[in-house]
Design goal:
Layout (H helix, E strand, L loop, with lengths): L3 H8 L3 E4 L2 E4 L11 H13 L8 E8 L9 E10 L3 E10 L2 E11 L23 H9 L4 H9 L2 E5 L7 H4 L5 E8 L7 H12 L5 H4 L11 E12 L9 E11 L2 E10 L4 E13 L11
Antiparallel strand pairs: 1-2, 2-4, 3-6, 3-9, 4-5, 5-6, 7-8, 8-10, 9-12, 10-11, 11-12
Helix pairs in contact: 2-6
Protein name: Acyl-CoA thioesterase II
Keywords: Hydrolase
InterPro entries: Acyl-CoA_hotdog (IPR042171), Acyl_CoA_thio (IPR003703), HotDog_dom_sf (IPR029069), TesB_ACOT8-like_N (IPR049449), TesB_C (IPR025652)
Length: about 300
């Protein structure tokens, strides 16, 4: 398959090897560690497949414990914590080469009537008139580097920044720790709501920590920090499709002690708040002679 959206759906299609045990692929890519959004998305698939499918997920809370190794399968063990009248709870442990690399707790809730209120979506331009990420890089560099072009061909999401990217230290001066992007899958994802939820979980980890970096360094180009997701929480408020445009607004209220906290809000084109996200990440200055470690 050549369509990155189809590859994403395939990546989220786990193999069931026992009643509550699943195996997921991990692409052999030129990365130091497995992308955290992939592990979170696959873990949520595993949790969802042990429910009756009638209750959509309403929240997840996860910890990234060890870096996963690209190219090595990941096993997901699901524990059925509770099946109540309105809520279903699952705990998932992700294991790679005999070691726990990630754990997740997910809660599923039957839809029911209630109050309706939310903060408004920010007033931003729509995605159609904004440049693609590749166009931004091409405009800045005059060409599209082959390494970036390869990444772009594998990318399952169309990403368009609401504000022009900052590329120089001068442009970074006075920048607030905020970012916003329009996103959607580059192709259809089918009609299974769980697939759309897990695909958005995948996408939610792609750039949330960028809000921490905005005042410090350009978002694209050489990095001055070793970054890693530490934990991740999501609350799903309304149904959605991940192959339709959504606005991902991000901000970082604080960064200190080698860690940065970021919050995200995801809206649809109609301005409905779909998902709330919070993540903390590790930020350590890179040193040329310093090697990577297996532990956070």
């Amino acid at each position: 398959m050549t369509n990155p959206a189809e590859r994403l759906v395939d990546l989220l299609d786990l193999e069931r090897i026992e009643l509550d045990i699943f195996r997921g692929r991990s692409p052999d890519e030129s990365l130091q560690r497995v992308f955290g959004g992939q592990v979170a998305g696959q873990a949520l698939v595993a949790a969802g497949r042990t429910t009756d499918g009638q209750r959509p997920v309403h929240s997840l809370h996860a910890y990234f414990l060890r870096p996963g190794r690209p190219g090595v399968p990941i096993v997901y063990q699901v524990e059925r914590i509770r099946d109540g009248r309105s809520f279903t709870t699952r705990r998932v442990i992700a294991i790679q080469q005999g070691r726990t690399i990630f754990n997740l707790t997910a809660s599923f809730h039957s839809a029911e009537p209630g109050i309706e209120q939310q903060l408004p979506m920010p007033d931003v331009p729509g995605p159609e008139g904004l440049p693609t990420l590749a166009d931004e890089v091409r405009t800045h560099l005059g060409t599209l580097p082959e390494a970036f072009a390869r990444m772009e061909r594998r990318q399952p999401f169309d990403i368009r920044y609401v504000e022009r990217l900052r590329w120089t230290d001068e442009e970074l001066k006075g920048a607030e720790p905020r970012s916003a992007v329009w996103m959607r899958a580059v192709g259809p994802l089918g009609d299974d709501p769980l697939v759309h939820t897990c695909a958005l979980t995948y996408a939610s980890d792609m750039m949330l920590l960028d809000a921490v970096r905005v005042p410090v360094e350009p978002l694209w180009g050489p990095r001055g920090f070793d970054m890693a997701s530490l934990d991740h929480a999501m609350w799903f408020h309304r149904p959605f499709r991940t192959d339709e445009w959504f606005l991902y607004e991000q901000e970082s209220p604080v960064a200190t002690g080698g860690r940065g906290l970021a919050r995200g809000r995801i809206y649809d084109r109609a301005g409905r708040l779909l998902v709330s996200v919070v993540q903390e990440g590790l930020f350590r200055p890179l040193r040329p002679a310093e090697g990577t470690t297996d532990e956070g």
